[in-house]
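Agenda item 2: heme C complex prediction
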Amino acid sequence: MGGESYKIWGSALVALTVAFGIGVAINQVTHTDHLDIKAYVVDVPDGGAETAAVVEEKVLEPITPLLASADIAAGEKAFKRCGTCHTVDKGGANKVGPNLYNVVGAAKGHEPSFAYSDALMSIDAPWDYENLNAFLVKPKDYAPGTKMNFAGISKPQDRANVIAYLRQFGDNPPPMPGQ
Ligand code: HEC
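Presented output:
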């Protein structure tokens, strides 16, 4: 698991703890006579329980085991969706999004000529395989406020294929797992 996964687990735990804490507090104030039963009902105002549920969904299976069996040709096909906004070739132009040559393994905002969002730049973690995985499943969850207007790729193997394809476009990409 990468550092991000721990952070995500951490936030999920915090959210659940807070939600449960509020629920218990409310029960203690209003239902002290039924506390033994009511303590299990997490009845939270302000959408707290909803937040906890959404955060929980974000816990991702690691992508590295799937990279070993990635289909690069399928990744190239899937990248067509990204190609509306991104070029991948060395020295390629920025479009709506930055050129992606050398992005795998790089720091956030690897293309100096592109104006990135603060949302993305404030995340202090490199684009290793697991962070790319977490971003590509749902960019707006990974970096709330990102300029990347893309819903995400829900199938893990599709993400692995795209990442394996992207990895080829770099001078010194990190090794593929298992190679
Ligand atoms: C609608 C346009 C659009 C589409 C489609 C799109 N992107 Fe992006 N992408 C962007 C923009 C804009 C940014 C900059 C995000 C920011 O600054 O918040 C970005 C940023 C990125 C970054 C981070 C680059 C860096 O230098 O830190 C990666 C990696 C990336 N996109 C990969 C992909 C992949 C892979 C796909 C296809 C699965 C894709 N994008 C689809 C617009 C798009």
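Discussion summary: The pocket of heme C is lined by residues 81-82, 84-86, 96-98, 100, 103, 108-111, 116-117, 119-120, 127, 136, 143, 146-150, 153, 162, 166 (CB under 6 Å).
Owner for follow-up: CH.
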